[in-house]
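User: Predict the full complex structure for these chains.
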Amino acid sequence: MLSKNQIKEIQSLQLKKFRDSGKLFIAEGIKTVCEIIDQRPEALKEIFATRDFIESHSEKIGSLRVTEASETDLKKISLQNTPNHVLSVCHYFDETPPVFDFKSNFSLYLDDVRDPGNLGTIIRLAGWFGLSTIFCSPASCDFYNPKVIQSTMGAFLRVNVVYTGLPELLAQIPGVPVYGAVLNGKSLYAEKPGNGLIIIGNEANGISEANLELVSNPITIPAGGQNNTESLNAAIATSIIVSEFFRQLKL
Amino acid sequence: MLSKNQIKEIQSLQLKKFRDSGKLFIAEGIKTVCEIIDQRPEALKEIFATRDFIESHSEKIGSLRVTEASETDLKKISLQNTPNHVLSVCHYFDETPPVFDFKSNFSLYLDDVRDPGNLGTIIRLAGWFGLSTIFCSPASCDFYNPKVIQSTMGAFLRVNVVYTGLPELLAQIPGVPVYGAVLNGKSLYAEKPGNGLIIIGNEANGISEANLELVSNPITIPAGGQNNTESLNAAIATSIIVSEFFRQLKL
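Assistant: Here is the predicted structure of the two-chain assembly.
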């Protein structure tokens, strides 16, 4: 049974200011919580779970702090539409210094990507293609936003997301080519990619003017239709570019 | 000013059974409604818009049926978080016979893709790469779901989405190769693609067992990381496959 105060505290973590003040975030769902227990148990502050979950996972839970919660309580603290069996409150991860492995890999810089679903999906994509660190502009969506965590499907545990201005980042990696996803660049498929940084712009406005000046290789995904004025979703464009870089550089 | 009844009727279109009974759906936002006016004005039943929108678009609106709505009313009928200036109620499109252009192009078959954001994003992707018709299993998400319409960003006006069983579809296109996105197929990048049908499975369960038997060429997006157990989002996987088919077949 959760107290009103507990419920209120957990619900408050939907907002960045409350996450930041306690350095706490929410991660929920059986698969996700089990992955945290396996991979980053030190991050767990507390687990809230149904009796069923607790009984069927007692070995895995071990000495971790668990509070039994009714399905009604879980509905109150969960962000999911369908009832979850378990929700965890976790400490922010220790800041891991970025790995600059541009000798053997490429990476992403998200320039004000704002939609949590897009950021989470891109982190999941990065996990799939083995990008260990990706970078975000300071005004990009918050990594600890519950919708981001949810849509990474566990990849938030394995991909290091570093918030930094682009000029500061580039100062640390001199000579690395800077690709930018734009509407009037060289065809992605014609470009011979190198191990560089790929800039993905904001959903509505693309790459900011200031950062566009730092792009050495503007690239575009060619459209195939006639009279198509559509754009592509930011996460979709990212996935197409990452896949093509991966194919050319890693296979 | 909208009557309570009007508001209720429009809100009811969020549910498939009410859409189907009146053969009506919602499409909202300035860009989308302007595209409908330009490309499919015959589909418009009624437009609900702020006075501002009506005054600034009077020429475009012409003799179309428009009702002035307050921002409060629009909030009630809109599905968006941020207030919209215009919402339209449209008639279902006339069923367009599928174009089987497998001599010059490839296409997609979505096998129970359920998430409206995924379906909408895939339609948008199809529009970008010039796929004029895509196919969905009967249990896939409804094309006229407002979240689908919204996330196509206008591509619902240009891509024909046909609901059909896979065996029935294949009976009409004998000899066309059937690719399937699976976890243990041939590498997407190693496959030499042909103008065929690409099957994308359900978000949680992949391609159904029955349909899997109809796949002639199972393909997989190779993962790049170590010990990665992640999967890819269905729309992301689709975009990577479509991009690679496009690159090899059309460029």
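The two ends of chain A are 53 Å apart (CA to CA).
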